[in-house]
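Suppose you are handed a protein chain with no further information: no name, no annotation, nothing but its sequence. What can you learn? This example shows the usual starting point.
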Amino acid sequence: MAKTGSTAFNTDRSIFKSTLERAKLALGSDYFLVLLTCHDSFEFELYSDDGLSHDTQDRVYHGLSLFPHDRWITTWNDGVAHFYDGGSENRLVAELLGTIGCQNALIAPFFMDDQGFGYACWLWEKPREPGKDDFMKSELIADLIALSVKAYRNKKRARERGDKLAALLKLSTSIYSSLNYTDVLQKAINLSMEIMAADGGAIFILDKDKLLLRPIVIVDERYKEELSSVTLKPGDGITGRVVQAGQGIISNNSDTDPRSVQVPGTPVDKESLISAPLTWSGEVIGAITLWSYSGKSFAKEDLEVLTIFARQTADAIENAKLFESLEKAYEELSATQEQLVMAEKLKALGEMAGGVAHDFNNVLGTILGRTQLLMRKYRDGAISRELGVIEEATLKGRRSVQRLQDFTHVSSRKKHENVDINKTVLDAIDTTGPAWKDTAQKMGVTIKLHKQLGDVAAMEGSHEELKEAVCNVILNSVDALPDGGNIWIKTFMKGDKVVLQISDDGIGMDETVKNKLFLPFFTTKGKKGFGMGLAVVYGILFRHQADIAVESAPGQGAVFTFAFNRSLLRTEENGRMPVPRSSQSLSILVVDDDLGLLAVIGDMIEFLNHKCIKADSGRAAMKLLSQERFDLVITDLGMPEVGGWEVARFCREHSPGTPIILISGWGAQLDNQDALSKVDAVLPKPFQMDELKETIERVTVALSKTEKINIRLT
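A reasonable first move is to predict its three-dimensional structure. Written in structure tokens, the prediction is:
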């Protein structure tokens, strides 16, 4: 790569300063670098935190600039983070580590569409092993850096366009009084006809992709409709010849001029014609063509004036185009900023909600366990009914917590499969039928649901999660139709995207509501709503990498459009044979630092005719595991000093073959795929006695089959 200059890495460094320091703190590294490259050149930029001296930056920059361009592209083109030590054979990594004097590096690549690609680099002076969250954090931070760089570059481009537009506006004449593209063209044709005393005229603009000239504005009361359908190739007719040659033409007998082309549907009348090219930056972008059928003949001086005017018109046209591009760029920047703010808000709320959900699950676990034990011990009708009320309320609380946890995690913990979105929609319609049909009719209103399901490709995802998202959007539409109305559901393909569109003709919403629509706990329904429905929808669609668009205005209904990537998975058939029940009495070690929950789990296990040995800490569990052997170990995940993973690892080392069940209040936030590589089953809190019984039976029977169990509570 060619060097861009000794101060390249200092250019606009202030924008990244805060990001660089936070990224370094996030992984606890000694240094943090960002390398930015370009697709269409061999140049790159280097940014670092304040810990790296300018001299070291110069040496790193010089060393990396000696590597060939293809080495940069192929080194980390798999899109995932990589961890390296001092003995790495990767020359780029060795250059970084050697120059800075570090032992380890974590490199996370990121892509910026057509703006190039880059690498986020964390470096440590002392040897270390990567943490289990380091890769996920690094890739997330790399993606955020990519968004920041793109936003900055877009802003820079917009600023440059604005400067250029401001310079052009200094040359303003009467046609520069508007920056609306259509207004500029209309004023230009009217003014040119006035100057030339013409009876009609049109401005033709060249479509560069199709190489066709089309009239954009026409002034001719007699044959405007016929002229509107005209298309010319460069070289066809007088206007086409002007565009092809870049020089104006006068034809005072165009009705007999062999160069002219007769417009279909118009009579052959005596006519004079004058045409001048619209030239901008040496390139012909179209032509102004005027005509007279009242006997006027155009002179050479007319062509000179029209040519000068055409140049000014071309400048004004390009000015208007640039202004539209500038507006679009600012809109994109605003949208990007809103997305970043939204992501940060959701991240903060997600972390808060996740912690609350974890603690609440432990409380619910104790209540649910004790209630179900009492229900099995006391069969009295009145007591049983009261306990049933407690059980139902606890299970309702569990479902609410699960919805919080579904919102909090940003990547799907469920295994994705090929999903038929049409089937998902039909299932969601059936599920929500009581709301939009039965309940609505009881209230004296009629809601009609119309479906138009197209022939769409399979998409990759979770059927259950997507069904929940579709149900929530349908129910949101039902709430927006207090007096009845219509709901439309469509599926169709748009390019390679599978598109789901749900719309209604309800009360709609203003911009303020629309901007807060997906925020958790935001509701316009008062006491009737909890504000989690559309927040869960956002979380599900975010995990499915769907494009989300919402269009709405007060009194005009709402349109929700979701675009998904088509699936690249092969269809697999999976079947699960029923697991036979085991009636064997087991010796089970239960580990949990929550004494109330530990006691209730122990009582549940003993009620199931198993022997229960309790340990109130991970350290106590390790001591017991080193002294005796157990048929099964059930351990909590989050415990002080020695956590569930350490207990599981100790059990694997000292008692290989003993099945392990991991219980955790983190529930849906836990990466089950990773967890099942370390334990035999995952059981989220709070769990019912039947779920505990089933899990125990499955892990003990599945032990000989090496089957991993993932219990998902519904």
